[in-house]
Amino acid sequence: MPTRDRSGLLRDPDFRRLFAATALGQLGDRIIFLALPLVGIAALHADEFQVGFLTAMTTAGSLLVGLPAGAWVDRMRKRSVMISTDLVRALVLLTVPMAWWTGLLSIWWLYAVALAHGVLTVFFDVAYVSYLPHLVGRGNLVEGNSRLSAIRSVTSISGPAVAGPLVGLVGAPATLVASSAGMTLSGLLAITIRKRERTPGPSERRRLGRDIRQGLEFVLRHPTLRAIMLGDAIFNLFLVVYQTMLLVFLERETGLRPFGVGLILSGMGCGALLGSLLATRVSKRVGQGPVIWLATLVTCPLACLMPLAQPGWSVYAAATGLVALSLGGVVRVVTQASLQQSLTPDPLLGRMSATTRFVSWGGIPLGGLLGGAAGSVFGATATLWIGAAGMTASALPNFLSPLRTMRTVPTETTPEFVR
User: Fold this and answer.
1) CB distance 370 to 238 below 8 Å
2) How many CB atoms lie within 10 A of CB 77?
3) Which stretch of DSSP H or E encloses residue 106?
4) CA separation for the pair 256, 311 (Å, rounded)
């Protein structure tokens, strides 16, 4: 798919539809990021450990279905998976305000919704990553990932900015109606994408166990993909430790109201937007390998500014560290996602995505539990210090791999077991 001017992939109608669907779905997702924990914190008066357990339930899907999800998605049309999971997630989220209005909502109901939503999100994300090379072509992956990351970053700004006032106006449970609406519209827009994948034939349907094993072998034997996966696993573990206590710290230690919390999270979205706009340029200038570990090493230590904050203006000054953290994170994710997709043959895209997600995200539920436990024992402030230190250390596996000096994507051959 040629890119003839600055509009690039946006000239393609199908990519524009995916772009718009991403905007609406991510807007709903960013509202969830703020509203769902606040349902527990403000509406149900959950303690630190319960907040951590809620975070664990949100991400436990990666452990429960992470590996088989890739094998299943590789046997199906990715677009159909994206549509169905969007619509079902919208229905699941609607049960929270309905239960609240009828007086049935409890922390256990919230755990169940978080778990169901997380499992469906695993299938959506695996299909989404696998569908992009089919839609835009491998030569346009960096541009495609950058543009989609840019719109996700815009929603990271607008989502909390919308969610904060909504929570203050109608309460956290009712705010989830907006999340459900965003995902519904995302699924309906995806239906309008005209480019179709071919349906896998009977000869391509292999045993599930063998499919999972092939995905694991491919990623674990590949030094570059293995390093990215390990670095991501460490980063995500400590990011969730940090995030689990961030909302608790902002509300209970600094006294911020929902609007102020939304403003802080919108600032993080600004950093993410800037990162998405700079990702392609920085990757070309620094090199695709070095930028992955340098982005982490340069920006993660700045997350230490937040636990130094006090009630008042200093919390907003400390938020600049979160802006930098988001900027570096998006530059890293855009670069490594494009690299992973470029290094993986088409028949293995779903399994590569699922395998890396299983390992990279598998520790996130543990991070939620560790964050909640550390918050209960040491307090929210100390837990933020622990999270910042761990995120910085995640640069090490990438630095000690071929990524240290890899400036361009090497030419890869298809593994012998992929036929």
Assistant:
1) no
2) 17
3) none
4) 8
Q: Distance between CA atoms of 246 and 386, rounded to whole angstroms?
A: 12
- Please state, in angstroms and rounded to a whole number, the distance separating the CA atoms of residues 277 and 326: 13
Identify whether the C-beta of residue 63 lies closer than 8 Å to the C-beta of residue 210: no
- 8 Å CB contact between 225 and 352: yes
Q: Which residues contact 371 (CB under 8 A, 6 or more apart)?
A: 52, 55, 240, 241, 242, 243, 244, 245, 383, 387
CB atoms within 10 A of CB 14: 16
Amino acid at 34: L
Q: Could you give the CA distance from residue 139 to residue 393 in angstroms, rounded to a whole number?
A: 32
Q: At 275, is the secondary structure helix, strand, or coil? A: helix
Q: d(Cα 419, Cα 415) in Å, to the nearest integer?
A: 9
Virtual torsion, Cα 344, 349, 354, 360, nearest 10 deg: 30
With CA atoms as reference, report the closest residue to 258 among 43, 48, 34, 36.
34
At position 301, the amino acid (one-letter code) is P
Residues 102 and 94: their CA atoms lie apart, in Å, by 13
The torsion defined by the Cα of 378, 381, 385 and 388, in degrees rounded to 10, comes to 120
Compute the distance between CA of residue 319 and CA of residue 384 in angstroms, rounded to an integer: 13
pTM: 0.67
| Closest by CA position to 359, among listed 211, 235, 244 | 235
Highest mean pLDDT: which range of 33-42, 91-100, 402-411: 91-100
**What would the mean pLDDT of 224-242 be, rounded to a whole number?**
91
Q: Which residue has the tokens 């250390």?
A: 393
Tell me the C-alpha distance between 264 and 248, whole Å. 13
Structure token digits, residue 226: 């293995």
Q: Could you give the CA distance from residue 386 to residue 389 in angstroms, rounded to a whole number?
A: 5
Q: What is the Cα–Cα distance from 318 to 314, expressed in whole angstroms?
A: 6
Look at residues 268, 267, 265 and name the one whose alpha carbon lies nearest to residue 250.
265
Tokens representing 157 are 């700004």
**Residue 28, class by beta-carbon neighbours within 10 Å (0-12 exposed, 13-18 middle, 19+ buried)?**
buried
CB 368 within 8 A of CB 62: no
CA-nearest of 138, 49, 149, 36 to 93 is: 36
pLDDT in tens, 3-36: 445 566 778 888 888 888 888 888 888 788 778 8
The pLDDT tens digits of the residues spanning 306-334 come to: 999 888 778 888 889 999 998 998 889 88
What is the DSSP code (8-state) at residue 249? I
